Protein 1
Amino acid sequence: MRARHPCGVPGSVMCPYAAQLAPGAPLRLVGGWVRHDVSMAYERNETKAERLDRNFNEQLQELRITQAGVQILFAFLLTIPFQQRFTELTGLQRTIYLVTLMAASISVIVFTAPVALHRALFHEGLKDFIVRYTDRLIIVGLLSLGLGIIGGVVLVLDVLLSHTAAFWTGAALLALELALWVAVPLVKKQQPTDE
């Protein structure tokens, strides 16, 4: 039986995806299929300094994406106390509001911290520290952002609908966040690189 490539092209024919691989990227036979050896095909020829610069630029791009959502959520939360209906909130609703406001505040502070850190340590030769520390900050920021998103939705639904609808929706959003932000990356990390 001839080896087949995952894209359906027989092993003896040039793969249409070969142009996307590094020149000379190795192929190997796995389970009757010819597979690209991804671990070797995705290597970069870069110095440590170039890798740190690229990683920090990628982190900054991630922060740009998250900051828009954080800013909108934070602005929304800051305006709520000035609405006439704010005085009608129950004790539970006020607690949800305060927790959500604090979560959004933490997100804003944590997501802007890498910029301040970079500015303070820019010429100190500490890019490796900045990249590692920014990675930790992004994780903390995403956790607080996730809490802020759920809290904001729960608060609004609790005011508009009921406690039950609000908390079930909050639980569903928590499950979605855990699935997309935690489970998918963990599962992918555990898969072999040739899959």
Note: The longest strand covers residues 27-30.
Protein 2
Amino acid sequence: MKDTIIDFMNKKDNGLIISDMPTGFGKTYNCVQAIYEYIYIYSGTKKQFYITTLKKNLPIEDLKDVYKQNNNKNFNKDVLVIKSNYDYIYDNFLEVNIPIKFQDDVYYEIERKLKFLKNSEIKFENTLLDMKLEAEKIIRNDLEPKFRSNILKIIKKDLGKKKEDLINGLKNNADYKWIVQIYPTVFTDDYKVYLLTIDKFLLKNTVLIKPSYYFIGDEITDNSIIFIDEFDTGKETVERSLIDRALSSKNDYIKLFLKIYNTFQNHIFTKELIELGNDIKNDKYTFNSLIKESQRIFKEFKLQYNYKTVESSIDTRQSFLFNDNSYHTMLRNNNNYIRAAFDEENQKVNIYFEKRKEYYENRHQDDIIIYSLVRNISSFLNKFRFMILTLSKNYSNYINDFRKENEDKFSIESAMSTIYREFSFSKEEIGILMDELCTDFVVRDNINTEIPDMTFYNNGF
């Protein structure tokens, strides 16, 4: 089995190999042997990811044993076990010496709560169990993000704001090496092997010195080798993760589209932004092109009117929007066909969920196709995102051309903020626009001229 895996790793640039051996056959053992030999016998350079459904199933000790058997002391240099930031704080915070200038109120609150959580004399049950869960929640959702933000603020002040200066300072300055001891993901790109759960693989990797990103969309996984343990169970985990993320989002994509459309129609943009927005190389992503596309979508799908679902055919408690902007709902009584029709009398668009017979009896040539609306808005938002990112880079360069060498550089992030203000986007709307696909482009230096359609239906999971 090991030889088959290694042969596949060395000879294939892409593809899928499935090992359906029964439990106890040695799949994990053969995988970690293959991971090690690929690096040290075959001099492989592709990054390797081993993902599984549960943390307890990560082959950390198995892989350590392979390194020990080969008298190789590079395990900690080669292998990164990727955890949540809460887990890193829980495991490492009390084990390192943190300089006084980082010891603010947040630091002391984390220290106090961790000492409570790690007190072996406390039996966590009943009320104490509730206190334990509350302490974990506060660290995870409030204290840890604040602590990390404070670290970033101080090191930017001490080392400078450039990514290169921050990396060099964290690597070479002894005063900051404790940061890497707590957050090893600071240098995620430097490792060769990554062990993590499927959930973590699908969630954002939050690091200090570059924007958060999804592994599945970042260049770190480009041309990489990915081992998926318990493949069948893993599919369920992926599906659950997608649904959880969709259910946690209450975003109205039509409302967001209408905001962009209305801004294009009514707002007077600065001359520089218009010129730079129309100077984008690919015509599909220019200001003028997107203005025309937004006008077409608005007119074709009658978005000047309210869309109302006829609720008798659906369970309104169980309808949701997938993170790829596609509409899903739990239907009643086999009403599996969706139809939308303009109600001229009441000046609105009604959405019907009907049985097959009713659908074909009631449909008209001028009905609005909801799935087409979803696809069009999804495609438009992807193009708009790309335009924002490219325009931000161009606008940053434009401003910096007029600045002197001793002046602070106008960053891409500052350029984005300027453009956001032109559209009056809220924080939540910015989150929608800059999530997933866009983090990929922010991280990468070479912005492509084409963006892929990453929707669930085209890519599956």
Note: The two ends are 26 Å apart (CA to CA).
Protein 3
Amino acid sequence: MTPLSNNLFEQDCKNIIMDYIVKHLDKSDDVDVSMNNIYVVWMCRILGNNKALLSTDLPDGMYYEITRNGDTGEYYVDVYKKFHNYSVNKSGKILRENEVIKMPSNVGVITEQGDLGLGFDPLTKEEEKVLNEQSKKDDVDPDYKDE
């Protein structure tokens, strides 16, 4: 199989993501989507294969990993949703927690069968209150020393 340039691979990735967004974006969100919404976070070519991590500026928090098999020309697409972000020191103590991305009830996940399975619930008022209180606390461990 002929090697694929980074420019062509990036364009293929954006087309794949655009197709995914058009098929899975909640129509009630009334969001205009274009290729300009999609951007590359990281991309490389190694051992004849291409890999890219991409995202969008849409408010859905989705993240895409696309790998192109250089031998077969097949593309493998993984779609992720970021739920939580935090830092941990060497002893496992949480140093800093960032806000959990809230899941609207209409967001689904892709099941093993490829169906869009709905089932996430939005945070309750109590959960939001707890998160807000946690974010007001000093989020840096005073005992942490950068080594």
Note: The two ends are 47 Å apart (CA to CA).
